[in-house]
Amino acid sequence: MRIVIAEDDPLLREGLALLLRAESLDVVATAGTPEEFLAALDAQHPDVAILDVRMPPTHTDEGVVAAIEARRRRPDLAILVLSAYVEQTFATELLVGGVAKLGYLLKERVGRVEEFLDALRRVVAGGTAIDPEVVAQLFTRSRQDARLERLSPRERDVLALMAEGLGNAAIAERLSVTHGAVHKHIRSIFAKLDLAPTDHVDRRVAAVLRYLEEVRHQV
């Protein structure tokens, strides 16, 4: 796994690099500005980029803009964005382009090393890793949608965990229910969101995308 880190705080940047190298992961470059990050992207061809949301010069959305540009240049690039707190607009800007190989975590998760490494590996493998707090806030904003209002509280919990990128077994463990119960809830979610079986669309992905798309229109 080849990794580029883009973080303007030198202590956090080097701390992340040390943590990842201690796990025998290959940090091929670090950058303190979006320009340095994009140059490293072109030179090093990483598998995954870890970026701070707020970077120089204005410390607003430069990290998000750089992430979107990186995905434009390298559609196969996995991206894990870190933020000090939930920034709904920035989250939805990233997610609207698709959820594959994408993570959005609060920086506090880095201190929970196993959770952080699990999220990193998940996005590199082609999955999604969205911070539970981000999902909770986005879900709260989206609950006025009529289709989402059809869902029961437990179905909302299941869809929220699906949006985090968890599989059925992990959802069952998180909610302390059986695998069969999770499967039943997901079938009900598909029905209530009018997602009929088709050979052309993964209904699980479609359910999450529909949820995130509805959120985007409310931001």
What does this structure look like?
This protein has eleven helices and six strands. The chain has a six-stranded parallel beta sheet with strand order 2-1-3-4-5-6, sandwiched between helices. The model has no long low-confidence stretch (mean pLDDT 84). It is α/β, with parallel strands linked by helices. The protein is elongated, with a radius of gyration of 18 Å. The protein has helices at residues 10-22, 34-44, 62-73, 88-95, 113-124, 132-142, 146-149, 153-164, 168-175, 179-192, 203-218, and strands at 2-6, 26-31, 48-52, 78-83, 102-106, 128-130. The protein has two domains: 2-130, Rossmann fold; 136-218, Winged helix-like DNA-binding domain superfamily/Winged helix DNA-binding domain (Arc Repressor Mutant, subunit A), CATH 1.10.10.
The CA-CA distance between the termini, in Å, is 35 Å
Instruction: Please tally the helical runs, counting DSSP H or I stretches of 4 or more residues.
Output: 11
The name of the CATH superfamily of the largest domain reads Response regulator
Strand content: 5-15%
> How many domains make up the coordinates?
2
Largest sheet features: 6 strands, parallel
Q: What is the global morphology? A: elongated
How helix-rich are the residues, as a percent range?
55-70%
Which strand order does the major sheet show? 2-1-3-4-5-6
Round the mean pLDDT to the nearest integer and report it: 84
| Alpha-beta content class | alpha/beta
Number of strands: 6
Parts with pLDDT < 50 across at least 5 consecutive residues: none
Return the CATH class of the largest domain: Alpha Beta
CATH architecture of the largest domain: 3-Layer(aba) Sandwich
> What is the succession of H and E elements?
EHEHEHEHEHEHHHHHH
> Over the alpha carbons, how many angstroms does the gyration radius reach?
18 Å
CATH fold-level assignment of the largest domain:
Rossmann fold
Organism: Streptomyces chisholmiae
Pfam families: GerE, Response_reg
InterPro entries: CheY-like_superfamily (IPR011006), NreC/VraR/RcsB-like_REC (IPR058245), Sig_transdc_resp-reg_C-effctor (IPR016032), Sig_transdc_resp-reg_receiver (IPR001789), Tscrpt_reg_LuxR_C (IPR000792), WalR-like (IPR039420), WH-like_DNA-bd_sf (IPR036388)
Keywords: DNA-binding, Phosphoprotein, Transcription, Transcription regulation
